[in-house]
Amino acid sequence: MSLNHPFPDTVRIIEVGARDGLQNTTKHVSPAVRAQLVNLLVDSGLTHIDTSSFVSPKRVPQMANADQVFANLNRKQNVVYSALTPNLKGMEMALAAGATEAAIFTSASEGFCQSNINCSIAESLKRFESVMELAQQHNIPVRGYVSCIDCCPYDGQTSPEQVASISHELYQMGCHEVSLGDTIGTGTPIRIKRVLEATSKRIPMAKLAAHYHDTYGQALANILASLEEGLAIIDSSVAGLGGCPYAPGASGNVATEDVVYMLQGMGIETGVNMDRLLIAANFICHELGIESRSAAGTALSLRNSFLKTATNNN
Ligand code: HMG
Ligand code: MG
Q: CA distances (Å), 234 to each of 46, 148, 266, in order?
C-alpha cells in the first residue's frame, strides 16, 4: 500500500504533565512528588519536560514552590527541563532554579489573554521583550505558546490569520519554536489544517508544535492531521492530565501514552519506553487518587496485569 502522506520518521514529544497536567488539579501535590513525576518521565525516555511554572502562586497555587521541584530533580544530561515564565520576575526565578529552557505564553484571543495573564496581547508581547533579553544574556532557549488557536472560551472562534500573526511575533522575537494551543480542545482536523497552513506561511513547519487538549475527543485526529501537514513536535501529558484554570471547561491534554501508542503503530520513533511511561502514569494517578484518562494506557495496564496473573497461575 502506498501512502499519500509522507509522515516524519521521528517525532519529538514535549511532556507537559508536570506543568499543564498538574496546574488545574483539585488535589495539590508537593514539590517532591512533582519532581518524582518528572524523574519517572525522564526514565521513560522523554527528553523535553515542561517541569513547572514561575507564575503567581495566588493565581495558580498548584505550581507554587517551583524552585523546590527543580531542586529535587535527578538531572540527566541531554534532557530539557523547561519552565513557564510569563514575565521578568518569572524568568529571574526560573534562571535561579536552573531551568534549562523557558517558555513565554500569550493567546490569539484577547479574552483569554486578559483572563490568563492579566494583560492584552499587545501588552504581553511588550512584557516578553525583557524576558527574551534576559534569556538571551543567559543563553537560555525560549519556547513560545499561543493559546486559543481554534476557539476562545470568552471570544469564540479564532481566525487562522490571527494565530499566524501572533505566532510570527513570538518567532520574530527569538522563540526557537512556537507551540499552538487548542486550549479548549474544540478544533477538528480540517480547521487545524487551516491554522497550520496559515501559520506555516510565516514560520517554518519544523518550528511549530501541536498542543492539543482533548476536551472534545479530537486531539489524536488533530495530531494525525498535523503530521500529514509535516508537523513533527507534539506536546502531550502523561495520563491525559491537564487543563488551564483560566479556560473554563478545558479538560486534559492528549495523553502521552495514546500519542506514543499511535506513533509506534505508524513506525514513527519517539524514544519513549511504554512500560516505563506507564510506571510514571500509575505513580501520578495514585498520588492524585484518579483514574488515567489515557485509553491506550488503561488498556495496556489491564493487559499487563492480566498477563502477570496468567504467568503466576502457570
Ligand atoms: P499580574 O496579575 O498582572 O500582577 O501578574 P502583577 O505583575 O502586578 O503581580 C501580582 C502579584 O503576583 C504580586 O504579588 C507579584 O509579586 C506576583 P503580591 O504583591 O500580590 O503578593 N507575581 C509573581 N509571583 C511569582 N511569579 C511570577 C510573578 N509575577 C507576579 N512570575 C501574571 C501577571 C502573569 C504573573 C499572573 O497573571 C499569573 O500568574 N497568571 C497565571 C498564568 C498561568 O499560569 N496560567 C496557566 C498556564 S498557561 C496555559 O495553561 C496554556 C498553555 O498550556 C497552552 C494552551 O493550552 O493553550 C501554555
Ligand atoms: Mg495547555
A: 12, 16, 15
Listed in sequence order, the residues at least 6 apart from 170 whose beta carbon sits closer than 8 Å to its beta carbon are 104, 106, 125, 128, 144, 146, 178
- Copy the grid coordinates of residue 200: 506555516
| 3-class DSSP assignment, residue 138 | coil
Around ligand 1, the residues with Cβ closer than 6 Å are: 20, 23, 53-56, 59-60, 84, 86-87, 89-90, 93, 105, 116-118, 145, 147, 181, 183, 211, 213, 244, 246
31-90 tens-digit pLDDT: 999 999 999 999 999 999 999 999 999 999 999 999 999 999 999 999 999 999 999 999
What H or E segment, with its residue span, contains residue 50? strand 48-53
Closest-CA residue to 74 (of 100, 38, 107, 46): 38
Strand partners, 236: 15
CB atoms within 10 A of CB 193: 17
Whole-model pTM? Answer: 0.96
Q: Report the first-to-last Cα separation within the chain, whole angstroms.
A: 41
Task: Specify whether the CB–CB gap between 108 and 149 falls below 8 A.
Answer: yes
What residue ranges define each of the domains in the chain, with the CATH number in brackets?
A: 12-313 (3.20.20.70)
